[in-house]
Fold this sequence. Notes:
2 helices; 4 strands
Amino acid sequence: MFKPKCLNGKEGFINAEGFYKPCCWRPTKDYFNKDEFNIAIVDITDAISSTKKFIELQQKQSPQDLDFTCYHHCYLDNNTERDVY
């Protein structure tokens, strides 16, 4: 089962390049390095809204189609959390 930890309301952050990301496990260069997450271009509330849309889409995916980072940090298999460091 996919259980996004970023939905706890505490995980989001702005990286040094000014991109809002839903969690600290996101790679430096990834899906969230787009203008819609760049707080120099958009309001932070818009960046958070775009992130929520991404998470909603991920929740509809089958495990094999999940975003790589989401799969490795937030996909639960037999109630055992999978952590990759």
